[in-house]
Amino acid sequence: MRIKTLIKFLILLLIPNILFAGTRLKDIAFIEGVRENQLYGYGLVVGLNGTGDRQSSFPTLQSVGNMLRRLGVNISPNEVNTQIKTRNIAAVMVTANLPPLVRAGTKIDVMVSSIGDATSLEGGVLLQTPLQGGDGRIYAVAQGVLSTGLGAGGRRQGVTLTVARIPNGALVEEDVPSTIIKDNCVSVVLRQPDFTTASRVIESINREFTLNIASAYDAGVIQVKVPKNFSDNIVGFISKIENISIEPDYPAKIVINERTGTVVSGSNVRISTVAVTHGNISVQINVSKEFSRESFGEEGKTEVVSSQSGRVSLIGEGTQQVEILEGTVTVYDLVKALNALGVAPKDLIAILQAIKEAGALYADLEFL
What we know:
Number of strands: 21
Distance between the termini: 24 Å
């Protein structure tokens, strides 16, 4: 199997020290108080072409009866059960994410999901539905024509007809209170807490403002004091923080998807001395130490220099092998050598697992 074939199996090698160097702080962190909020509500979809809830759906019948009575239509509970046909109506749950810092009058998208036994929401119209937050307060109202993603071509395979969306289907009625400044400080929250990254963020912020204004009590939150010259320009202050260049640090990890044959690894994941034989594949990683002496006056200083080398072989008729140059042998070097020999993804995964079990792989293996 050649390299081109392996590419089809998506054997990927990411290089964190290249991808993440110079990352903006806003890409790995957010300002505390600037966040989305989830909204939900219960409503009715009408106008369905016989694909709504069945007559036995009590919540739908009760909801229709309550709505009609609010609109001035006098109808008893018994009449609801006998006179109202629900096949054109469906009870639904409406959900939405309220973006941070939005104001009243802003329109947001909503998702509509059937909670009864309706077979399709295609062509339906959502009636006015209040959307509340976790605190029980109403923050938006949704209404509009549903879109299931089914175009003029008719029914398409894989299209879910009991879930629909309404673009700009909800109108924000109330602002969400947010506190960005607390005790004259802005809190920067790392999306992936890490002590080294937090330390680098503190150093970068203090260097950018030439003031000792950043500090942290843990690996996830950095407190930044607002300087006096930015007391009237909080937006400019936060913008300057967000655009500071940071090189985040991440623990060594290899992510493996055995179903698809995908391997994702950082180039700096190191391998120590190990020998692995898997079928007709042989992997040998060696560590050699050299001693050198330098003289300084009457005393000499001995320095131990370590270097690694490796060899990957494909044994059989016309034996092939690839040498790994001296230096620190990484997973990148190993996979590159295996690729050159046309090793299948499942064999590569088995070799990495074996090296990890032998204690020679300095990284965590995570399986999807």
